[in-house]
Protein backbone atom coordinates (compact mmCIF):
# COMPACT_ATOMS: atom_id res chain seq x y z
CA UNK A 1 0.00 0.00 0.00
CA UNK A 2 1.26 3.42 -1.02
CA UNK A 3 1.58 6.11 1.61
CA UNK A 4 -1.31 8.41 0.57
CA UNK A 5 -3.74 10.61 2.38
CA UNK A 6 -6.46 7.98 2.03
CA UNK A 7 -4.26 5.20 3.49
CA UNK A 8 -3.29 7.33 6.48
CA UNK A 9 -6.96 8.15 7.07
CA UNK A 10 -7.85 4.43 6.91
CA UNK A 11 -5.13 3.57 9.45
CA UNK A 12 -6.42 6.18 11.90
CA UNK A 13 -9.95 4.86 11.46
CA UNK A 14 -8.90 1.25 12.14
CA UNK A 15 -7.04 2.33 15.30
CA UNK A 16 -10.10 4.21 16.53
CA UNK A 17 -12.30 1.17 15.91
CA UNK A 18 -9.84 -1.07 17.79
CA UNK A 19 -9.84 1.22 20.83
CA UNK A 20 -13.65 1.35 20.72
CA UNK A 21 -13.90 -2.46 20.67
CA UNK A 22 -11.45 -2.74 23.58
CA UNK A 23 -13.50 -0.24 25.59
CA UNK A 24 -16.74 -2.08 24.87
CA UNK A 25 -15.10 -5.44 25.74
CA UNK A 26 -13.79 -4.15 29.07
CA UNK A 27 -17.07 -2.59 30.08
CA UNK A 28 -19.04 -5.66 29.04
CA UNK A 29 -17.06 -8.02 31.27
CA UNK A 30 -18.20 -11.62 30.95
CA UNK A 31 -21.23 -10.49 28.80
CA UNK A 32 -19.01 -8.70 26.33
CA UNK A 33 -20.59 -8.47 22.83
CA UNK A 34 -17.24 -9.37 21.27
CA UNK A 35 -16.80 -12.56 23.28
CA UNK A 36 -18.08 -14.71 20.42
CA UNK A 37 -15.64 -13.13 18.01
CA UNK A 38 -12.79 -13.70 20.48
CA UNK A 39 -13.70 -17.42 20.78
CA UNK A 40 -13.82 -17.75 17.00
CA UNK A 41 -10.39 -16.15 16.74
CA UNK A 42 -9.09 -18.51 19.40
CA UNK A 43 -10.41 -21.48 17.45
CA UNK A 44 -8.63 -20.25 14.32
CA UNK A 45 -5.32 -19.12 15.83
CA UNK A 46 -5.09 -21.66 18.75
CA UNK A 47 -3.48 -24.46 16.71
CA UNK A 48 -0.98 -21.98 15.29
CA UNK A 49 -0.04 -20.82 18.80
CA UNK A 50 0.40 -24.43 19.94
CA UNK A 51 2.68 -25.13 16.98
CA UNK A 52 4.75 -22.05 17.70
CA UNK A 53 4.89 -23.01 21.38
CA UNK A 54 6.03 -26.53 20.49
CA UNK A 55 8.74 -25.07 18.31
CA UNK A 56 9.88 -22.64 21.00
CA UNK A 57 9.71 -25.08 23.95
CA UNK A 58 12.99 -26.91 23.13
CA UNK A 59 14.79 -23.60 23.22
CA UNK A 60 13.16 -22.77 26.52
CA UNK A 61 14.00 -26.21 27.81
CA UNK A 62 17.58 -25.74 26.74
CA UNK A 63 17.78 -22.43 28.57
CA UNK A 64 16.21 -24.06 31.61
CA UNK A 65 18.65 -26.93 31.33
CA UNK A 66 21.56 -24.53 31.20
CA UNK A 67 20.22 -22.74 34.28
CA UNK A 68 19.69 -26.07 36.06
CA UNK A 69 23.11 -27.15 34.92
CA UNK A 70 24.56 -24.15 36.65
CA UNK A 71 22.67 -25.06 39.80
CA UNK A 72 23.84 -28.65 39.48
CA UNK A 73 27.39 -27.43 38.97
CA UNK A 74 27.12 -25.41 42.16
CA UNK A 75 25.80 -28.44 44.00
CA UNK A 76 28.55 -30.61 42.50
CA UNK A 77 31.17 -28.09 43.52
CA UNK A 78 29.76 -28.08 47.05
CA UNK A 79 29.78 -31.88 47.14
CA UNK A 80 33.34 -31.99 45.82
CA UNK A 81 34.36 -29.52 48.49
CA UNK A 82 32.72 -31.64 51.18
CA UNK A 83 34.36 -34.74 49.71
CA UNK A 84 37.76 -33.07 49.79
CA UNK A 85 37.18 -32.07 53.40
CA UNK A 86 36.23 -35.65 54.26
CA UNK A 87 39.33 -36.96 52.50
CA UNK A 88 41.45 -34.45 54.36
CA UNK A 89 39.86 -35.57 57.61
CA UNK A 90 40.40 -39.19 56.69
CA UNK A 91 44.02 -38.43 55.84
CA UNK A 92 44.38 -36.67 59.15
CA UNK A 93 42.85 -39.68 60.89
CA UNK A 94 45.24 -41.99 59.04
CA UNK A 95 48.17 -39.85 60.14
CA UNK A 96 46.89 -39.88 63.70
CA UNK A 97 46.61 -43.65 63.59
CA UNK A 98 50.13 -43.88 62.19
CA UNK A 99 51.51 -41.65 64.93
CA UNK A 100 49.66 -43.61 67.61
CA UNK A 101 51.16 -46.78 66.21
CA UNK A 102 54.64 -45.22 66.37
CA UNK A 103 54.00 -44.09 69.93
CA UNK A 104 52.79 -47.56 70.96
CA UNK A 105 55.92 -49.18 69.54
CA UNK A 106 58.16 -46.66 71.28
CA UNK A 107 56.41 -47.14 74.61
CA UNK A 108 56.79 -50.90 74.18
CA UNK A 109 60.56 -50.52 73.73
CA UNK A 110 60.72 -48.14 76.69
CA UNK A 111 58.77 -50.60 78.83
CA UNK A 112 60.86 -53.63 77.85
CA UNK A 113 64.12 -51.77 78.36
CA UNK A 114 62.94 -49.87 81.43
CA UNK A 115 63.91 -46.55 79.84
CA UNK A 116 62.42 -43.34 81.17
CA UNK A 117 61.67 -41.34 78.02
CA UNK A 118 60.40 -37.91 77.01
CA UNK A 119 58.34 -38.02 73.84
CA UNK A 120 59.01 -35.45 71.13
CA UNK A 121 58.07 -34.64 67.56
CA UNK A 122 60.53 -34.07 64.73
CA UNK A 123 59.99 -30.51 63.50
CA UNK A 124 62.99 -30.00 61.19
CA UNK A 125 65.70 -31.93 59.38
CA UNK A 126 68.89 -30.95 57.63
CA UNK A 127 72.34 -29.52 58.05
CA UNK A 128 71.38 -26.10 59.37
CA UNK A 129 73.17 -26.82 62.65
CA UNK A 130 76.43 -27.82 60.90
CA UNK A 131 75.87 -31.59 60.69
CA UNK A 132 75.03 -33.66 57.64
CA UNK A 133 72.40 -35.87 59.26
CA UNK A 134 70.45 -34.11 62.00
CA UNK A 135 66.90 -33.51 63.15
CA UNK A 136 65.36 -30.89 65.41
CA UNK A 137 62.81 -31.99 68.00
CA UNK A 138 60.22 -29.91 69.87
CA UNK A 139 61.59 -30.68 73.35
CA UNK A 140 64.42 -28.88 75.11
CA UNK A 141 65.89 -27.85 78.43
CA UNK A 142 62.47 -26.89 79.77
CA UNK A 143 61.44 -30.52 79.26
CA UNK A 144 64.47 -31.98 81.02
CA UNK A 145 66.47 -32.64 77.85
CA UNK A 146 70.25 -32.48 78.18
CA UNK A 147 73.20 -32.88 75.88
CA UNK A 148 74.41 -36.46 75.21
CA UNK A 149 71.13 -38.21 75.83
CA UNK A 150 70.11 -41.26 73.79
CA UNK A 151 67.29 -40.81 71.28
CA UNK A 152 65.19 -43.74 70.07
CA UNK A 153 61.87 -44.53 68.45
CA UNK A 154 59.68 -47.60 68.11
CA UNK A 155 62.21 -49.27 65.80
CA UNK A 156 65.46 -48.66 67.62
CA UNK A 157 68.39 -46.25 67.92
CA UNK A 158 67.85 -42.83 66.32
CA UNK A 159 70.87 -40.89 67.60
CA UNK A 160 72.06 -38.66 70.44
CA UNK A 161 71.30 -35.12 71.57
CA UNK A 162 74.06 -32.65 70.63
CA UNK A 163 72.58 -29.17 71.17
CA UNK A 164 69.84 -28.11 73.57
CA UNK A 165 67.74 -24.95 73.55
CA UNK A 166 64.92 -23.94 75.90
CA UNK A 167 62.21 -25.65 73.83
CA UNK A 168 64.06 -27.52 71.08
CA UNK A 169 67.06 -29.78 70.70
CA UNK A 170 69.29 -31.02 67.89
CA UNK A 171 69.82 -34.75 67.44
CA UNK A 172 72.78 -36.22 65.54
CA UNK A 173 71.46 -39.25 63.68
CA UNK A 174 73.19 -42.63 63.82
CA UNK A 175 73.58 -42.44 60.03
CA UNK A 176 75.90 -39.40 60.25
CA UNK A 177 79.56 -40.13 59.33
CA UNK A 178 80.66 -38.49 62.61
CA UNK A 179 78.43 -40.79 64.66
CA UNK A 180 79.93 -43.74 66.56
CA UNK A 181 78.25 -46.05 69.07
CA UNK A 182 79.41 -49.14 70.95
CA UNK A 183 77.53 -52.29 69.97
CA UNK A 184 76.93 -55.78 71.34
CA UNK A 185 76.09 -58.80 69.18
CA UNK A 186 73.01 -60.79 70.06
CA UNK A 187 73.73 -64.11 71.79
CA UNK A 188 77.53 -64.04 71.32
CA UNK A 189 78.00 -60.68 73.12
CA UNK A 190 80.80 -59.73 70.71
CA UNK A 191 81.59 -56.03 71.08
CA UNK A 192 82.30 -53.47 68.41
CA UNK A 193 81.83 -49.92 67.22
CA UNK A 194 79.24 -48.83 64.64
CA UNK A 195 79.76 -45.74 62.50
CA UNK A 196 77.31 -43.94 60.24
CA UNK A 197 77.72 -43.88 56.46
CA UNK A 198 74.90 -41.62 55.35
CA UNK A 199 72.31 -43.53 53.35
CA UNK A 200 74.45 -46.69 53.32
CA UNK A 201 74.46 -49.42 56.00
CA UNK A 202 76.30 -48.78 59.25
CA UNK A 203 79.91 -49.92 59.32
CA UNK A 204 80.68 -52.02 62.39
CA UNK A 205 84.20 -52.92 63.50
CA UNK A 206 84.20 -55.93 65.83
CA UNK A 207 86.99 -56.07 68.40
CA UNK A 208 87.41 -59.80 67.83
CA UNK A 209 88.82 -60.43 64.36
CA UNK A 210 87.96 -64.13 64.62
CA UNK A 211 84.36 -63.62 65.73
CA UNK A 212 81.88 -65.84 63.98
CA UNK A 213 79.23 -63.64 62.44
CA UNK A 214 76.68 -64.32 59.73
CA UNK A 215 74.12 -62.35 57.75
CA UNK A 216 70.98 -61.81 59.81
CA UNK A 217 72.70 -61.48 63.17
CA UNK A 218 71.49 -58.53 65.23
CA UNK A 219 73.11 -55.82 67.33
CA UNK A 220 72.14 -53.56 70.24
CA UNK A 221 73.89 -50.65 71.92
CA UNK A 222 76.57 -51.61 74.41
CA UNK A 223 76.10 -48.51 76.55
CA UNK A 224 78.40 -45.76 77.76
CA UNK A 225 79.94 -44.81 81.09
CA UNK A 226 77.25 -43.21 83.25
CA UNK A 227 74.83 -44.03 80.37
CA UNK A 228 75.92 -40.97 78.37
CA UNK A 229 75.61 -40.60 75.50
CA UNK A 230 74.18 -44.12 75.09
CA UNK A 231 72.11 -46.37 77.29
CA UNK A 232 72.50 -50.14 76.76
CA UNK A 233 70.20 -52.54 74.95
CA UNK A 234 68.69 -50.25 72.27
CA UNK A 235 68.22 -52.15 68.97
CA UNK A 236 70.70 -51.00 66.29
CA UNK A 237 70.23 -53.18 63.22
CA UNK A 238 70.76 -56.43 61.32
CA UNK A 239 73.99 -57.67 59.72
CA UNK A 240 73.63 -57.44 55.94
CA UNK A 241 77.22 -58.25 54.91
CA UNK A 242 80.37 -59.63 56.54
CA UNK A 243 83.82 -58.91 55.15
CA UNK A 244 86.03 -61.99 54.89
CA UNK A 245 88.33 -62.37 57.85
CA UNK A 246 91.85 -61.40 56.88
CA UNK A 247 93.44 -62.52 60.10
CA UNK A 248 93.45 -58.98 61.50
CA UNK A 249 92.74 -57.89 65.01
CA UNK A 250 89.26 -56.64 64.08
CA UNK A 251 86.46 -57.69 61.70
CA UNK A 252 84.27 -55.45 59.56
CA UNK A 253 80.50 -55.88 59.27
CA UNK A 254 77.81 -53.87 57.51
CA UNK A 255 74.56 -53.44 59.36
CA UNK A 256 71.18 -52.31 58.05
CA UNK A 257 69.71 -50.09 60.79
CA UNK A 258 66.24 -50.74 62.12
CA UNK A 259 65.37 -47.03 61.96
CA UNK A 260 64.39 -45.35 58.70
CA UNK A 261 66.22 -42.04 59.09
CA UNK A 262 64.36 -40.37 56.21
CA UNK A 263 60.90 -40.81 57.77
CA UNK A 264 61.23 -39.88 61.41
CA UNK A 265 58.23 -38.39 63.19
CA UNK A 266 57.75 -39.43 66.83
CA UNK A 267 60.90 -40.02 68.89
CA UNK A 268 61.77 -40.45 72.56
CA UNK A 269 64.69 -38.99 74.49
CA UNK A 270 65.91 -41.29 77.25
CA UNK A 271 65.93 -39.06 80.34
CA UNK A 272 66.34 -41.96 82.76
CA UNK A 273 68.58 -44.97 82.10
CA UNK A 274 67.54 -48.49 83.10
CA UNK A 275 68.78 -49.76 86.44
CA UNK A 276 69.79 -53.05 84.81
CA UNK A 277 71.29 -53.66 81.36
CA UNK A 278 68.50 -55.18 79.22
CA UNK A 279 71.15 -56.64 76.88
CA UNK A 280 69.29 -58.06 73.83
CA UNK A 281 65.85 -58.50 75.40
CA UNK A 282 64.50 -55.38 73.66
CA UNK A 283 65.15 -56.77 70.17
CA UNK A 284 61.98 -57.53 68.19
CA UNK A 285 60.92 -61.11 67.66
CA UNK A 286 62.79 -62.77 64.83
CA UNK A 287 60.75 -63.14 61.65
CA UNK A 288 59.61 -66.65 60.90
CA UNK A 289 61.32 -68.21 57.88
CA UNK A 290 59.12 -68.42 54.82
CA UNK A 291 58.57 -72.08 53.90
CA UNK A 292 59.80 -73.06 50.45
CA UNK A 293 56.98 -74.70 48.47
CA UNK A 294 57.82 -78.12 47.06
CA UNK A 295 56.20 -79.60 43.99
CA UNK A 296 55.92 -83.36 43.58
CA UNK A 297 55.41 -84.65 40.05
CA UNK A 298 53.91 -88.12 39.71
CA UNK A 299 54.19 -89.83 36.32
CA UNK A 300 51.37 -92.23 35.49
CA UNK A 301 52.25 -94.83 32.80
CA UNK A 302 49.99 -94.69 29.78
CA UNK A 303 47.97 -97.77 28.89
CA UNK A 304 48.83 -97.31 25.20
CA UNK A 305 52.60 -97.38 25.82
CA UNK A 306 53.01 -101.18 25.34
CA UNK A 307 51.10 -100.96 22.08
CA UNK A 308 53.39 -98.22 20.83
CA UNK A 309 56.41 -100.30 21.76
CA UNK A 310 54.94 -103.26 19.90
CA UNK A 311 54.37 -101.18 16.78
CA UNK A 312 57.94 -99.90 16.89
CA UNK A 313 59.24 -103.48 17.22
CA UNK A 314 57.15 -104.66 14.25
CA UNK A 315 58.56 -101.84 12.15
TrEMBL record:
Biological process annotations from GO: regulation of cell shape
Record key words, sorted: Cell shape
Family matches, as Pfam families: MreC (PF04085)
Domain Rod shape-determining protein MreC beta-barrel core per the UniProt entry, residue ranges: 130-270
Cellular component, GO, one term: plasma membrane
Keyword field contains Methyltransferase: no
Cited NCBIfam families: mreC, PRK13922.11-5
Protein name: Cell shape-determining protein MreC
Source organism: Streptomyces luteolifulvus
Amino acid sequence: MRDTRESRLLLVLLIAIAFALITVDIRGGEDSPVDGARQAAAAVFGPIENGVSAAVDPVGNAVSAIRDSGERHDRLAALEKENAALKAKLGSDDRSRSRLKQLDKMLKIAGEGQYGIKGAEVIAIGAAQGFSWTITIDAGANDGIKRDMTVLNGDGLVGRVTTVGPNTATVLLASDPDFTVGTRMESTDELGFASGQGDRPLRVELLNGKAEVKKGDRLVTFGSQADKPFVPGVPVGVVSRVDPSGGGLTRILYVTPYVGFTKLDIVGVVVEAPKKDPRDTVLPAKPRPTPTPTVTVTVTPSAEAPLDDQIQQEQ
